[in-house]
Amino acid sequence: MGAMTSNDTPRDPHPYVGMWVTADGFIRQELLPDGRYDEARGEHRSAYTGRYTVTGDHIDYIDDTGFTATGDVRDGVLFHEHLVLYREDDERLRQPGVPPHG
User: Fold this and answer.
1) pLDDT at 60
2) Contact 26, 37 (CB under 8 A)
3) Beta strands 36-41 and 27-31: pairing type?
4) What are residue 47's DSSP bridge partners?
5) Long-range contacts: 35-40, Cβ < 8 Å, 24+?
């Protein structure tokens, strides 16, 4: 093998890449394919931005301000600190009359 070019090859997007939202839609956290994330809260777009790394089902977040957080994905649901986020296209978000878990 010649020069080290493996770092130039984009890795396959992680399966968790995409938009995650809370049941009430207030918090929208987008995991970008390039290892960045962008979190909106209500009308406040990009309320939090930073980097994330995935290890198995565990996500480590490093905010651009230096704040760190973690998340874990179980059964397709992202438990991020005290939040519960669902895939934007998760059928569980569409069940009318189901009271939100408190």
Assistant:
1) 97
2) no
3) antiparallel
4) none
5) 37/61
pLDDT in tens, 18-50: 999 999 999 999 999 999 999 999 999 999 999
d(C-alpha 64, C-alpha 38), whole Å:
10
How far, in Å, CA of 71 to CA of 82, rounded? Answer: 9
pLDDT at 13: 67
As a whole number, mean pLDDT of residues 88-101 equals: 75
**Alpha-carbon separation of residue 97 from 2, 15, 80, 94 (angstroms):** 60, 30, 24, 9
Q: Which residues contact 63 (CB under 8 A, 6 or more apart)?
A: 48, 49, 50, 69
